[in-house]
Give the backbone structure.
Amino acid sequence: MSAAASTIAGPSARAVAWRRREVRRAFTFYAFLSPWLLGFALLTAVPLAVALLMSLTNYDGFNLDRASFVGLDNYARALMDPDAHHALQRTVILMAIVVPIGVAVQLGLALLLDQRLRFSGLFRTIFYLPHIIPVVGAAWVWKLFTDPNGGLLNALIGVFRPDTYVRWLVEYPTAVLAVLVIWAAAGGGMVIFLAGLQGIPAEYREAAMIDGANPWQVTRFITLPLLSPVIFFQLVVGVIATLQILQQPILLTPGITGISPGTVPQRDNYVFVGHAYTAIFVNHNFGYGAALLWILFALVLALTLVLFRTSRRWVFYGVEQ
Amino acid sequence: MRRVLRRRAVGRYALVVSVAAIFSLPVAWLLITSLKKQSEYAASPFVLFPAIPQWVNYQLAITMADFPKYGTNSLVLSSAYTILVVITSALVGFGFARHRGPGRDRLFLFVIATMMLPGLVLFVPQFVMFARLDLTNSYWPWVLWGLSASPYHIFLFRQFFAGFPRELEDAAEVDGAGPLRVFLQIFVPNAGPAIAASAIFAFLWVWGDYLYPILLLSDQNTTLAVKLAKALVDPRGNPLQTITMAGTVLYVLPLVIVFFAAQRYIVRGVVTTGLKG
């Protein structure tokens, strides 16, 4: 090939050198990427194939020789499993509470701090701090705060309604979980919204003010539309994160001593990943659990796509920075 | 007009302060509880503040939760992962940002796509593989995760390195520096903020993670997160909430200190990647 080409085009030393340089460049590129390429092959691609195969078997996590292919039985089972239905329902309820309120809180905090305000750095730190607290610490914070015996929440309510004794984690577990998640995520989202607000040229808002718009109108008709890409981003991230929630429901299980690998979230906080986790690590039903996780992935993808579809109607990409 | 403005300012401060109180009250309650006597916890009538702050709770928590042992475990595991993942992700991010090769954009799409995968979808088969290779009950899984770089961190470094001016490399290449030297002597020394953000996120992730240690490690080599997920108990098995809270404060405190020291970098990192710490 190279001999034939050289008789036509003539052997150009420059072309050969150029080719050699291209090869060397590609080599350098792949050399820098090598940790990820290796990791992607061994710790992502292979496991994904294994997970897919696993979901088609009755593998119990220990005895490979006893595992056999069961076709799509695990997926069929998931469709019929009342616990899976329940778990999906609880997850959707949690998502419907946490995502809209959570994003509203993040946005509200950012708008609050975006004004002329003394000590705004201090307030930003206070709002951001819960985001730093690891999940085990956050679970203690809210377990303790809502504890019927030594908790502050009942005591505060008791000021108005004496002898309040609400066992929050038993009676309203999803509410406590939702508050924990919103509280923990608020700071991270706030910082992202603040960055978005700084990207809006001040002239836009000033012009509206000069035209006689009040602060609410400026927010509603200038700031929010310009922030809509950030709102959209936070909604997508929130949906993905909430559908996959697992550690918080486990750690919020009532009772103070009983957390172990076998701990299952209580009924109201029995989320979808919790069901998969129970199937795999408590009941050693790896095949079925893997099928549940693939179904979850499909749901995550589907919901993200739906969000992207609707975004065309309300996300405003007019200003390119 | 001025009166309206002043009223508005007062309202604004009242709002900010009350929201801040709501956000920090539960944390303050944890701190207060950590200083109570156990008999003051759940006492009737209700005890708001301890009569005498029980600093001894902290000493007791250190012994009872065996901080020297499990704190060291947490520190070793978090540091090992952090060092590895920062190095590998910086290399990969640099490759994506400053070098070209066939399939670059498609490969980067794969990096982004892996961020969308539910964690357990990857972890469950990895768990089976680690168990087959006899790597459970060791720190090897974290070492392997660190060595293979993380999509979030790759993304962070790529974004950061992409903003460097082209002339930097050109000048170095004219001087005859190879790509690795360009990376080490020009890009790394100027990547302080990205390295800080990446390191803090990596450290926070391992230090704060409860799930993987409880599934992969035994009671002997597990981390503080697992140790403190259960309440500390007295010899008869009664929970000691006050001492447990002292332990929790000690477990969270290092992160808060790091956060105050490096707030700027964290904020910048969050903004670049939209990544949770």
Q: What stands out?
A: Chain B touches chain A through 88 residues (CB under 8 Å). The radius of gyration of chain B is 24 Å. The longest helix of chain B spans residues 2-34. Chain B is about 70% helix and 0% strand.
